Amino acid sequence: MASKGLRKVVAMSDTSFDISVDQGEPDKKTRSLLRIGGRFWSWVWFILGAIYFLVPLFATLRHSLRMERDVLGFKAYERAFEDPSFLETFLLSNALAVATILCSTLLIVPTAYWIRLRLPQARRIAEFITLLPFVIPAIILVFGLIRTYSTHFTIPFTDIELFQPLTTTKFGTYALITAGYMVLAMPYMYRSVDTGMRVVDIRTLTEAAQSLGAGWFTIITQVILPNVRSALLSGALLTFAIVVGEVTLASFLGVDAFGPYLFLIGQHKAYEPAALSFVTFLMTWFAMGMIQFVTGGQGQATGAH
Amino acid sequence: MSYLSLENVTKQFGDVVVVDKFNLGIEKGEFVSFLGPSGCGKTTTLRMVAGFELPTSGRITLDGVDITDKAPNQRNVGMIFQAYALFPNMTVAQNIGFGLRIRKMNSTDVHARVDEMLSLVNLEKHANKYPYQLSGGQQQRVSLARALAIRPEVLLLDEPLSALDAKIRVSLRQEIRAIQRRLGITAIFVTHDQEEALSISDRIVVMNVGEMEQVGSPFEIYNFPKTQFVANFVGSLNNADAEVVDPANGILAMDGVHFKTAEEDFSSRKKGDKVKISVRPERFSFAVEPKKDNVIDCTIESITFLGAVVRIQIKIGNTSFNMDTFNNPFLELPAIGAKEQVMCSKEAVLVL
What we know:
The complex is a heterodimer. Chain A has two domains: 23-64; 76-295, MetI-like fold (Orthogonal Bundle), CATH 1.10.3720.10. Chain A has twelve helices and three strands. Chain A has helices at 28-64, 75-82, 84-117, 123-135, 138-149, 170-200, 202-211, 216-227, 229-245, 248-253, 258-268, 272-295, and strands at 7-8, 153-154, 161-163. In chain A, a hairpin with a 6-residue loop joins strand 2 and strand 3 (161-163). Chain A is flat. Chain A starts with 6 loop residues before the first strand and ends in a 10-residue tail after the last helix. Chain B is built from eight helices and 21 strands. Chain B is elongated. Chain B has a six-stranded mixed beta sheet, with helices on both faces. A five-stranded antiparallel beta sheet of chain B has the order 13-12-11-14-21, with no helix packed on it. A five-stranded antiparallel beta sheet of chain B has the order 15-20-16-17-18, with no helix packed on it. Strand 1 (7-8) of chain A pairs antiparallel with strand 19 of chain B.
């Protein structure tokens, strides 16, 4: 006998749905209060942080303006800028900073890129190496550099000289100090670039570019570098700040850089160092503003999802 | 010789064989899907065609040219990624024109081709937007336009719809298929979604642990699975242990209930052989013709409403089976616990 199976019905039975409301959810008024409370504490922490950073800066500015008794003025700034050594050392430090940033970019971008792309197992080693400047003081680094590069270089087991001691020439010393600065800036530069590369998923972007016919040079210059630009600029800014203020390497290598100059006038003068410190702050802010301006609207945060 | 051919392609990572002696020929203009669970080797195979992975052994030829060892940028292959992979620093138009600029095409031709591609994917109004200003579906259409702009010999799609929501997935897969047909381009589509593979492909390659289980049209794969894996992976399936009763007449027994099968090589089996039988849920229906084959008594165990389909769990002997029937608001469903009779054709009873 055939089964009844699905039978026609004339009327549909009423179906009721139980739409329950979670009693544990805060109501609209409570949510609004919670939001205001959260915002209040955010502002409190922001203001405390701002005071922590701004009070010393304000004190420096105020001190730098009080060179003349009972008058607020720019005398200290005038004096500082009048000194020919200021411009000389400042320009030299800027040039060394630019050289360090360029050399670091050339070294670190391809290294971080290759490690992310092909050698992920080497990441821990690279991170360890880049953190070494935090545990090895600059004094050790500079003595190591002097000891290694102040002798004649010969091919091992022969008397054939490859090059003169680097410390005996100006160019050699600049090359040496730039290399030293690269080491000091490595933790900041590598981490900035590596984080930038993680955010944009460089592996997939590389493969996409390769499938469209791009070679390595095009991929690095047109795809990778523009997308880690913001990270690179952050690293460059930190490198700049380190190089301009660095004292140990410059002093021991005998380079007349801005760091030793600032240190020297700090020992003999009262107001000019404050003026120069404030100028350095302004320059850093200017650089940060430039980063915001250059990367504004389309930084790497807009990477592939 | 096929337009794209993979001959004995094997890929090993250390000791692990990810793809094992893979052989496949794909004709020009064909749309082939690689279907399988995670880790079955489908993406690795696709990446070997793209050049991102080198085969451990075997040969890949495209239009008669051996491309096995060619770098990815030396093969004229377009690729679409699950994560879109649009260049964030470039606008939609710049993204689409990237491959053309690499080929040193002059700017007028690049412009014309970019416009053509934008109109192909209906994104003319978004040419100057950056990827982050587009939805996921729009980004994937840009990715499609970018891959097609270079006039690739093969289009490779690596789970391109996985990151999209259900409705966009359906509309975009139809769009991809329509564009592929219009351009007559050869395409390989990797997916773990059987519905996607069934709806879009000329042929499906079902893969499991680095090996090809079955190659066939969606109709063949679904209706005539050759292995238990294919039967289970593609669509829903009821499986049960049975015993051969009458090999000549295709009769077997499960929990004392007799089934008839139309399997071709069933007569070669011996009486008493243990076999596994499989029946798709939609092949069952409530019995209306008592004299037909496979009219079976059952008990209704549960009823699940799935929207267009109602899934009824029935008990035959001691084994539970699923039965799918189309939803019809004017038909009353049987009560749970009711004794009913269901039927299925002898062709529906697969012995795998």
